[in-house]
């Protein structure tokens, strides 16, 4: 469990620790050569992505046009162990993940993957991201079906062949056996706490990079779990 994530009451200490791990720069990468086709009348699709702390990954996709919902949670383990304190023991098999639901008529699965690999995290870091260590912070795509798996496999091979990263991609492809939403206090964390030191140094730069590299897909006003959960009047 990362120390920074529980230092709400000690902001100066959190600031000192966070400055030691500034966000890594985004990498401009090509679009996938192969993408999912979008049949007429296709409804929303969901892919579950893991790439370190779910705060930043969720924040990036909440700012992405075409994404209709992005929920922080846990994948890779059992429902009984899908709790922050337990996942932090690194014994549950879970990874901090984000279920990204998107409208394929506005944004493709391939474009979601391009943003994921380029902006949302560093896919060459094995079982860690920035200051966070352990398999719960692994890079992983929890695919919903064989099509999602096939496109992701092909894209990883394409990027490795092009050597767009200094090291090979270590992203794991794992079948989606369950997604369990994280505790309420983790949802929309980047949006609700933009001045929190961890967010400032590790995650806000990801949103800035989304705006710079994917301007056509950047949404200034994020779509949040909190807003979607409000009852209609």
Fold and architecture overview:
The protein has a six-stranded mixed beta sheet. It has a two-stranded antiparallel ribbon with strand order 4-5. Mean pLDDT is 90; it is low at 6-20. It is 33% helix and 17% strand. It is built from eight helices and eight strands, in the order H-E-H-E-H-E-H-E-E-E-H-E-E-H-H-H. It has helices spanning 11-18, 54-62, 84-87, 109-120, 146-162, 189-192, 197-213, 225-229, and strands at residues 45-51, 67-75, 95-102, 128-129, 132-133, 139-143, 172-175, 179-181. The chain has one domain (3-21, 43-228): 2-Layer Sandwich (Peptide Methionine Sulfoxide Reductase, Chain A). Helix 5 (146-162) links the parallel strand 6 and strand 7 (172-175). It starts with 10 loop residues before the first helix and ends with a helix. The protein has 233 residues and is of the alpha+beta class. 42% of the residues are buried.
């Amino acid at each position: 469990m990362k120390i920074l994530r529980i230092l709400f009451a000690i902001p100066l200490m959190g600031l000192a620790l966070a400055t030691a791990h500034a966000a890594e720069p985004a990498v401009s990468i090509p679009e996938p050569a192969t993408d999912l086709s979008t049949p007429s009348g296709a409804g929303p699709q969901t892919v579950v992505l893991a790439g370190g702390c779910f705060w930043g990954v969720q924040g990036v996709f909440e700012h992405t046009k075409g994404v209709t919902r992005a929920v922080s949670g846990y994948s890779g383990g059992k429902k009984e162990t899908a709790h922050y304190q337990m996942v932090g023991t690194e014994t549950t098999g879970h990874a901090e993940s984000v279920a990204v639901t998107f409208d394929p008529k506005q944004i493709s699965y391939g474009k979601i993957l391009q943003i994921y690999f380029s902006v949302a995290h560093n896919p060459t870091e094995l079982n860690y991201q920035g200051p966070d260590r352990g398999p719960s912070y692994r890079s992983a795509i929890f695919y919903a079906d064989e099509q999602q798996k096939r496109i992701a496999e092909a894209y990883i091979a394409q990027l490795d062949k092009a050597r767009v990263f200094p090291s090979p991609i270590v992203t794991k492809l794992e079948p989606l056996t369950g997604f369990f939403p994280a505790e309420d206090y983790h949802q929309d964390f980047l949006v609700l706490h933009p001045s929190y030191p961890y967010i400032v140094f590790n995650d806000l730069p990801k949103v800035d990079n989304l705006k710079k590299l994917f301007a056509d897909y950047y949404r200034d006003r994020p779509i949040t779990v909190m807003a979607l959960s409000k009852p209609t009047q």
